[in-house]
Amino acid sequence: LGKPGTPEANCSDPITSRVEDMVQPTTAQIIMGRALLEAFIPSCLTVLIGPWSDANGRTPFMVIALGGMSLAYLCWGFLALLPNLNPFLFLLASLPRSGSGGSWALYMLSYCYVSDVTDERARSFRMSVLTMAIYCSLIFGSALAPVLIAVQHSLNPYPLIFFFSASLLIICTLYTHWYLRESINIDLGGEKAFFKWSHVKDSFLTCFQRRSGHARAMIFLIMASLSINVFISEGEGAVMYLSLREMFSWQLSDFSTFSCFANVTSGLGAFAGVWLFASLLGLSNMLVVVLLFIIRTARSLIFVFARSGLDFYIGAAVATFVSAYSALCRTEISRMVPRPDLGKVFALMSFLESLTPIASTPLYTLVYQLTFLEYPGAVYIFSTALCVVALILATIVFILQRIVRGDCYCPDLTRDSHVQTID
Q1: What's the whole-number mean pLDDT along residues 132-156?
Q2: What keywords are assigned to this protein (predicted)?
Q3: CATH class of residue range 24-180
Q4: Where are the domains of the chain?
């Protein structure tokens, strides 16, 4: 990637700090543009997809989302074959992913699917398994990309990587279409049209309706804490590689190794955290979430005061169990909402989460561009402050649950009597 208009002589040594400082702002802008493009359209679609899936099934849009992601990687592969291409044109490849709902729709429907086919006792465990599977895929990708680059002995190894990713997504699309059984009983008399204002209206009315035991307030506080954590993750993801290059002169292989380590610890922590804190120790879900947000705050502080790459490894190790918060928060929300309304509530939650990159990526990018020459780790101070806010919100939910005890949970326990067993 080179900055448009940069003289060729300045690009002869891509590892000099002067060239690095010239390229990084353009790289940050492209990362920001992609994040915005893949956030705005999916955020609007999730509000429609959730209510539609409550009546028409989860799997149709899972197939559509996977198909759009497959097409996006195919486009990236073909664009990577073209020499001397303006790097901003790669943003066009994100359009199929955005128009199909992308990963936001896929994750939302996956969590709805897990909620459909499990009872309350096993739900947090199953959701943690799903979270662990996501991290395992990140580990696989981070570990395999440098290997594919090394074995090609080519100046342009990226087309193979993109085409390989597209082939994996195509396999997932075909498997979902042909072999994944539908998790709900489809309402044959339900609304079949997708672009209907009633879908948006139903989502908001369902989420804002009054519930016993301050459940409505708890749902929105949990949604806010989840959105803040996505805000932090998306923002840091946009600038972490650049900041580590500036702070410790890391190359792609160094960052890939760190990403693998962080994903391994997070993947194991998502599974082991639910088992250790909720199952073995018997702690309530929200108490565990409060403890995990305290740990995440400590992680951000370690990054702020990092003096070597080892400090980032220590921070990732400290935050091993933090990834379990997502499964626990979604489990709590599913216990407060009747099963027929899960898609609507999860849709609004995904809508809020998918909107966060629109604000987080430009904000983190701006902070990084203003500070990377003097203090590349300044962005993690901002992360620390946001972690404290999420911690306060989770603490409020925990206190409210202690006050109302079990009154906040949905009394309609019959929803679990209709759970299907998916082999």
Answers
A1: 77
A2: Membrane, Transmembrane, Transmembrane helix
A3: mainly alpha
A4: 24-180, 208-408
